[in-house]
Amino acid sequence: MDSPFRLTLPVLFGYVPLGMAFGVLFTAQLDYGWWVAPLMGIVIFAGAAQILAVGLLATHADLLAVFTAMLVLNSRHLFYGLSLLNQFAGAGWRKLYLIFGLTDETYSLLTSRPRGSDFKAEQSVDLRITFYNQCYWVVGCALGAGLGSTIEFDSTGIEFALVALFIVLMIEQYKALQQQLPLWIGASSAGIAVAALPAANQLIGAIILATGVLLINYRFTYQHHSEAKGRGHG
Amino acid sequence: MDEATYLAAFIAVSAAATFLTRAIPFAFLSRHSHHPFVLHLGRYLPATVMALLVVIFLLQSAKWQAPLFGVDALLPSLLVVALHLWRRNALLSIIAGTVSYMLIQQL
């Protein structure tokens, strides 16, 4: 079986450059010390949220708006926990760190690796995977911020890494689901929100709209199931 | 609020919000983990949210006026899609897309 370190290698190659992109963006757009970038990697540990944070810091956004924006941007994590409820059960102090470190990439590794029956042993493997991932991320943030402040480098457009990351994750989600409908629901909700709402409310508006459509979609599917069941028993 | 206090509060708020989104299912949904609507959302919402983020951020990254009509962001996006369908190497797709976008923006 692969060691935890080997399992995390793809994340090493993803997190260091992405963390560096964040670090470079951070020092290019803000006047804070370079060490603030790795500090954010230590206490926040979220790629998209930290890149969004640069823009919010630059405009000195209201803290309530920051809180809302972070909740909305990270709302997909609400649903990651659902598939790990049983795996993390009884992990004690470890559980807090496992939950804290549940990024997209950690989630993918933890849910796709084969598991034995020894819960405690599996949880310590989970813990090491999470910790290695965070180390890569913090190192990336520090490198980017450190180099960004010493090397002349035109970083215009580097924030596109976030769009590219979302496109990649969308393709991965599609490959896992093999269904187009969720993508169309998300894309059209976003289109409607952008057309109808001011920039600050577009993300939250689109998420609420999309969740509403998924609820309707669920009612239809569930109703059909229970009707089919009812007929079956009748 | 002075600059250092704002920064500290900002980081604390961001950390709290991020941890909250990761912790809520464990705090509240342990007993409802098998409810069909929870399973439905758990299954379909991630893909929905990804598509939604792509559209919103793409619309913001492009110049939609003449003479570009969004090509400055659409071209790098198509590169990411094509590369990822071809090689399925997340790092390669992300770097190629970002570098091409940067080149176009800096021309």
Write the layout of secondary structure elements.
The complex is a heterodimer of chains A (234) and B (107).
Chain A: H1 4-29, H2 36-43, H3 47-58, H4 63-73, H5 77-80, H6 93-100, H7 104-112, H8 119-150, H9 160-177, H10 181-196, H11 202-233
Chain B: H1 3-28, H2 36-61, H3 71-87, H4 90-106
Helix pairs in contact in B: 3-4
Would you write up a description of this structure?
The complex is a heterodimer of chains A (234) and B (107). With 234 residues, chain A is mostly helical. Helices cover 75% and strands 0% of the residues of chain A. Chain A has 11 helices and no strands. Chain A has helices at residues 4-29, 36-43, 47-58, 63-73, 77-80, 93-100, 104-112, 119-150, 160-177, 181-196, 202-233. In chain A, α7 (104-112) runs antiparallel to α8 and α10 (181-196) packs antiparallel against α11. The longest helix of chain A is centred in the middle third of the chain and has 32 residues, at 119-150. The radius of gyration of chain A is 20 Å and the shape is globular. The mean pLDDT of chain A is 85. Chain B has 2 domains: 1-33; 34-107, no CATH class. Chain B contains 4 helices and no strands. Chain B is extended and about 55 Å long. The model of chain B has no long low-confidence stretch (mean pLDDT 89). Classes of the chains: A mainly alpha (234), B mainly alpha (107). At the A-B interface, α1, α2, α3, α4 and α5 of A face α1, α2, α3 and α4 of B.
Q: Largest sheet of chain A, described in full?
A: none
How would the global form of chain B be characterised? extended
Query: What is the share of helical residues of chain A?
Result: over 70%
How many domains in all of chain A? 2
Q: Report the count of strand segments of chain A.
A: 0
Order of helices and strands of chain A: HHHHHHHHHHH
The overall pLDDT average of chain A reads 85
Strand content of chain B is under 5%
Note poorly predicted spans of chain A: none
Give the radius of gyration of chain B.
20 Å
SSE order of chain B, one letter for each helix or strand: HHHH
How far is it from the N-terminal to the C-terminal residue of chain B, by CA?
40 Å
Average of per-residue pLDDT values of chain B: 89
Interface with most residues:
A-B, 92 and 68 residues
Put simply, the count of helices of chain B is: 4
Q: How many strand elements of chain B?
A: 0
